[in-house]
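[Backbone geometry]
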Amino acid sequence: MIGFDIVKWIHIVSTTVFFATGFGTAVQMWLAHRGGDVQAIASMAKNVVRVDLTFTAASGLVLPITGAILVSMAGFPAGAPWLITSYILYTIAFICWATATKLRMKVRDTAALAAFRGEALPDCYYRYMRWWLQLSWPAFIALLVVFYLMLAQPLAEPLAGNGIPAL
């Protein structure tokens, strides 16, 4: 039971870090963009990419590992429909996040060059931001649904006799 509680604690902390950094960096990036100050955008984009590649990526990698351990320890069948749906949505969110992170890197580099040259942001910057925003919503919605499925565990019952409560 202690092992289960430790893994569950790591999973919950990772979920918190994942959502907080993902949402927080998106809001900061958007606010800097809306402000229009090239220097502020360059600085914020640099920090957002750094945070995404450390905290968001690390917690995003921990979640499927701890999730798989919890599913196994709780005795849920890995092929349960609510879990399969979660796996698919998490994969979609990851693909959107990875692509959006590449776009944020382009935003960072484009804004840094414009700031260095003392120029306005080029058209490609705005195109990258539009694509980034279009990828952010499906990822966020997919993760909210995954979060719901992990909490609600619809139609899920752990195997009898394992002595571990539902997640």
Remarks:
- The chain has one domain: 2-152.
- Residues 41 and 51 are 15 Å apart (CA to CA).
